[in-house]
């Protein structure tokens, strides 16, 4: 029997939705979102049509980096709920036919994690080697020139034991020594703990940081550094990240996942394409999906985006499944980067490219970055480099559900202020509006889920210029789709070279287009995009 080309694994044909738990839904009035809150919003997510929810960290943490500093990998922070709240959430998510993914943060722990407390307690503690300890240089200086992503150098002096420890992020986030087999085993057990509880997969935090150069060689200077950039970018992280041995570690993680049915992992990796695709692993034994952040990092320019899509399609390993991302909790929101109108075009792009899309909560209602006054900034990245406007708070503000006080997010004072316009821009209002972003997202998701060509079909580039991108999605035996996007604000013209390109507009950024038959020449307004069912 021939394999059914429309059948793929859930994480290939599905759509992932990232929840930043602090900001999704509060249930107990402390102004911070929590698991019981998320539970009450599952119907919304299932109506939206997404497949899997990824939760940013929900584990016990001193919250120096809002949960990315974990002090217990096998518990739930009381801010978010309890283990039984978690079990209830897993059951409810599965009950609706959806999947649940957790954030795994294996590169570093909190400095309050018992492992680190032990490790720092003395030089001969059995866990000393679980972290990266180094003597000072003879003149007392730090072991090398490595910088912290959050500003300053990456070494912290420990007075009692007279050594430095390495932290790629905050000094409250010491890096684990992944060359130590005990560390490896401990973290693989963390994975097993959650997999046994029914979790469907992990988003692995800073995967490309996990192994560092054994000789701790100095990083070279970045010749392209400019003063507005984060101080970290003064050096090229040649020796502190993306070391060849990291792939063995990823393979071990994959091995654990393979011992459970249909589980998966996504790696958070900010690297150029040719380095990124190495994380699929030799013979596909690495990450199921190394996050593809090109739509986050490239300028929003038609030719560059079109080239990036084609390059990515070109360098993927044979069995490597693609994926696309427009936003996450570390980056400015898409609406703030490209504008409200263009964000609709971006939605068409995200949901019609070949590969698994990840949607960042709130982007489906076009939430914008919220300006957070200086005295309210909470993100350590913003606080540590105050003159560079690098705070990630603006893209982490509470979800805008309705026009009631605090947008229906919380009965208490939200931990971050809300957008001023939440009474107008919210789920409840957009749900009824055929022209809203939410309606566009819902319909695009529905079409994608219904049409095998869009869900799992091939990608065929058709055309691009300084304004437009056009491509076809097709799967034998199913309707083909032509996607035509105007990434500029000016009108643009598409002229098909192939006269067989006739069809009917299925979905458009301006719903007025829908149902319109189109053929060889199509004139588009600025900020307009069409999904055309070819006939
Ligand atoms: C990842 C997370 C980010 C966090 C950092 C350190 O990049 O996405 O939010 O600050 O890792 O854990």
UniProtKB/TrEMBL annotation:
CDD domains: AmyAc_OligoGlu_like. The keyword Hydrolase applies. It comes from the Bacteria. Coiled coil: none annotated. The keyword Hydrolase applies. Keywords: Glycosidase, Hydrolase. It holds the Pfam family Alpha-amylase. GO terms for biological process: oligosaccharide catabolic process. Residues 18-396 form the Glycosyl hydrolase family 13 catalytic domain. One of its GO terms (molecular function) is alpha-amylase activity. InterPro entries: GH, GH13_cat_dom, Glyco_hydro_b, O16G_dom_2. Residues 378-404 are annotated as: Disordered. Belongs to the glycosyl hydrolase 13 family. This is Alpha-glucosidase. It comes from Spirosoma endophyticum.
């Amino acid at each position: 029997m021939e394999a059914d080309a429309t059948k793929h694994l859930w994480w290939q044909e599905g759509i992932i939705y990232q929840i930043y738990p602090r900001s999704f839904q509060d249930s107990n009035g402390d102004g911070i979102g929590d698991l019981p809150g998320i539970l009450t919003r599952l119907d919304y997510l299932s109506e939206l049509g997404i497949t899997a929810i990824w939760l940013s960290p929900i584990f016990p943490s001193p919250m120096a980096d809002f949960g990315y500093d974990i002090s217990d990998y096998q518990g739930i922070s009381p801010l978010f709920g309890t283990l039984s709240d978690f079990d209830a959430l897993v059951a409810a998510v599965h009950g609706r036919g959806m999947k649940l993914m957790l954030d795994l943060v294996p590169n570093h722990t909190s400095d309050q994690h018992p492992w680190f407390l032990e490790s720092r307690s003395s030089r001969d503690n059995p866990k000393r080697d679980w972290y990266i300890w180094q003597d000072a240089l003879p003149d007392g200086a730090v072991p090398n020139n490595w910088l912290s992503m959050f500003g300053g150098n990456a070494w912290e002096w420990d007075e009692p034991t007279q050594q430095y420890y390495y932290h790629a992020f905050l000094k409250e986030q010491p890096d684990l020594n992944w060359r130590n087999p005990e560390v490896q085993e401990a973290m693989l057990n963390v994975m097993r703990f959650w997999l046994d509880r029914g979790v469907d997969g992990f988003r692995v935090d800073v995967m490309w940081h996990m192994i560092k150069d054994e000789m701790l060689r100095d990083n070279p200077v970045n010749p392209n550094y400019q003063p507005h950039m984060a101080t970290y970018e003064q050096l090229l992280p040649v020796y502190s990240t993306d070391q060849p041995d990291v792939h063995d570690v990823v393979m071990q993680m994959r091995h654990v996942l393979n011992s459970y049915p249909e589980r998966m992992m996504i790696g958070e990796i900010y690297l150029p394409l040719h380095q990124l695709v190495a994380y699929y692993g030799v013979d596909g034994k690495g990450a199921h999906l190394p996050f593809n952040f090109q739509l986050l990092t490239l300028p929003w320019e038609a030719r560059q985006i079109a080239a990036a899509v084609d390059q990515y399609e070109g360098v993927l390993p044979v069995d490597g499944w693609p994926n696309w991302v427009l936003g996450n909790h570390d980056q400015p929101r898409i609406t703030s980067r490209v504008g409200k109108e263009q964000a609709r075009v971006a939605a068409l792009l995200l949901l019609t490219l070949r590969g698994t899309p990840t949607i960042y909560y709130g982007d489906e209602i076009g939430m914008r970055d919220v300006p957070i006054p200086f005295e309210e900034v909470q993100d350590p990245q913003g606080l540590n480099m105050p003159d560079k406007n690098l705070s990630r708070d603006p893209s982490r503000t509470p979800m805008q559900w309705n026009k009631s006080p605090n947008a229906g997010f919380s009965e208490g004072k939200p931990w971050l202020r809300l957008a001023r316009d939440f009474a107008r821009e919210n789920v409840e209002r957009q749900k009824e509006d055929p022209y809203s972003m939410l309606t566009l997202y819902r319909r695009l998701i529905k079409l994608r889920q219904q049409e095998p060509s869009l869900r799992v079909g091939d990608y065929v580039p058709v055309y691009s210029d300084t304004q437009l991108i056009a491509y076809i999605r097709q799967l034998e035996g199913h309707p083909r789709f032509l996607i035509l996007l105007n990434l500029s604000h000016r009108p643009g013209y598409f002229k098909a070279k192939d006269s067989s390109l006739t069809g009917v507009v299925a979905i458009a950024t301006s719903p007025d287009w829908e149902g319109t038959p189109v053929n060889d020449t199509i004139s588009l307004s600025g900020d307009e995009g069409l999904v055309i069912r070819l006939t």
